[in-house]
Design goal:
Layout lengths: L7 E4 L4 E3 L7 E7 L1 E6 L6 E6 L3 E2 L1 H6 L5 E5 L3 E7 H10 L2 H17 L3
Antiparallel strand pairs: 1-8, 2-7, 3-6, 3-8, 4-5, 4-7
């Protein structure tokens, strides 16, 4: 039996989880709470609010590009961290078609996401 330990981080409301332009180190799966995603532009416009079960920061792990937006905890939020290495290993083991689709979708999303 394989046991995987999940690393968790708890953020208080208002904590910046990551900033637009930063080099990615991990992605996050929200376990509880909520996270505001705001644009990387000067106006920091609200793009969306993510809640339990949502992923954030995954695009940067797919294409190793800087963060396209800023993530701010809306309230006390617990996240499971997914390291770049773990994500890369899992993606490499996936079906080649799935890998190609994930990379293609990420490229397209980057083109439509204002920075």
């Amino acid at each position: 039996m394989t046991v995987e330990l999940l690393n968790r981080q708890v953020f208080s409301g208002g904590d910046v989880i990551f900033k637009a332009g930063e080099v990615p180190r991990c992605a996050y799966l929200i376990q509880s709470g909520a996270v505001n995603i705001v644009s990387g532009r000067e106006d920091h416009a609200l793009v969306t609010t993510l809640v339990a079960g949502d992923l954030l920061g995954e695009m940067a792990l797919v294409d190793a590009q800087p963060r396209s937006a800023t993530a701010v905890a809306k309230q006390t939020t617990t996240c499971i961290t997914i390291t770049a290495g773990d994500f890369g290993t899992r993606l490499a083991k996936s079906d080649p078609l799935v890998r190609a689709m994930v990379k293609s979708l990420t490229r397209r999303l980057r083109k439509t996401t204002p920075s």
